[in-house]
Amino acid sequence: MSFNKMRMPLFLIATILFGIKTYVVYRFMFDLSIENPLQEFILLVNPLASAYLIFAISVWMNPGRQMKYLRWTSLIGSLILFFNLIFYRNFTDFITIPVLFQGNNAADLTGSFLTLLHPADVLVFFDVVVIWYLSKKNFDLSVSLPKQGKIAATAVTFLLLAGNVVLAEIERPMLFVRSFDREYLVKNIGVYNYHLYDMTMQTKTRAQRVLADESEISEIESYIKDKSPDQVEKDSELYGIAENKNVIFVSIESFQNFLLDSEINGTEVAPFLSDLKESEDTISFENFYHQTAQGKTSDSEFIVENSLYPLDRGAVYFTHAQNEYNALPELLGQNGYETSVFHANNKSFWNRDVMYENIGYDEFYGEQSFELTPENSFGWGLEDKAFFDQSIEYMKAQEQPFYSKFITLTHHFPFELPEEKANIDRYDSGSNTLNQYFQTARYTDEALEGFFKKLKDSGLYEDSIIVLMGDHYGISEFHNEAMSQFLGKEVTPYVHTQLQRVPFMIHIPGYEGGEVKEEVVGQIDVKPTLLHLLGIEAENDLTFGTNMFSETKNEFTAMRDGSFVSEQYVFSKGICYDRSTGEEIGDQAEACQPIRDKVDKELQYSDNIIYGDLFRFYDFSSEHN
User: Fold this and answer.
1) What is the rounded average pLDDT of the residues 154-175?
2) 625 in a domain, yes or no?
3) Which residues are catalytic?
């Protein structure tokens, strides 16, 4: 039977094709976890509801415009789905409006983009080809309805959407209130309705600064002071141990804790860092978690510098670079430190040149400060060994004491390393990303060992403390199958959360009290900890983190999606686990809910500070009651 005889309107054909295509992409190309039959049913319903919403609008148009509208909306909708798929493969996340406005970063992502393409991606556009073909005049699949028919067709849209929302609220109560986890939104309302929700949230947050007033910061101040009454403990053994010493802070790209003490075919992945964490002049933290979101490295910088949480949408470095902050480099500058950043990338990437100036950095040694050649550049740019070697002379020229932050590049996704530079075998799994991950990690480990030697040769080592921190994960949930193979166990939400641990080491030359500490801490705690070691008092500072050596540490370490780790529990993907055993806890409400409520409040307070630019109402130099 020909399409001409069956006369099914093209907008309905497009709805079915586009809806089924989207469901297949959700189910088999995204790594969305399906936990029950209701989630499966909603995952099937929401793409059909979204597709009908998009294509049913065409019934209000004349036949010629109907065909044109259906062609272009199917293409645009498919492109939205395709770019979300590529983004998800890298970040296990979905695109937000703030990320779209960070387009100046796109050129730097070209190499990564190509590695994320799969042959099956052409199927995302299969329905587009069919719709364009059927929109030709000889098929005549337009529809001409009376006004009542158009109204009825439109009413179906609202019924489908309402049904979708009701089912979503049944499956995930308070879905639009507890919206830290974008995966839950996409699973329940679909990627297209999620983007409409995201646009609404963007409008709301833009208005938040205009409507903010100083009463909001007073409430947050009371919360922080009540939570952490003893920010400065002068009688601590480590208080002021690094007073007037240089601080060399190394942010190690994409370096996760599981790399330490790991081997590939009998060869250690990170021998230098593995030994350093056990040395007598190093204090390392076994349970230190990164807390970044969409801003990745820039988020880790923001958290460390401000002891505030990142935003759940976009990167603060880009969206709120002109806000008032009381950042670590500014505080150190007020206490006689020269402050600088070394990063062999272009200065505008993540808007760093603007943000750095605002938060008090004196100098930014970006890509223009280094000599790049074909021999010393690959992947994302200048390789780490040359980066550290070329930085030494700049460091020696700085006035002491100084605070210098280094951001490495070699161990960056997609983890590409010339074969002749690799000193460890590739791993053998179904994930090329994980296979290459160990080689670039080993190369960065070697670069750090060389950096320590250079510091000793230059005379800077003895007068400095060296802080090393992994900035964020390198292996996303998209590679869970390969990670399960490497770890020898299934990557459950509990295991995934444990994989968010990154190295954090404080190396103090001449100190003989080194230890590996077991406390649960995170990037939010770095700022107060460094100020403690340097003997710098900031009693009027407002931070959500606490000094890691304090007896009154945070009750929890919160992630941006609302999950958390405490001394007793791990909460992830809506499941409460016993932290020591990894077993699910039956009565989750009683165990994890009280901390969940505190986590949500703290994340909201931090968001309010950023969106409302609330620090403009606060005088950090005055006593507050």
Assistant:
1) 79
2) no
3) 297
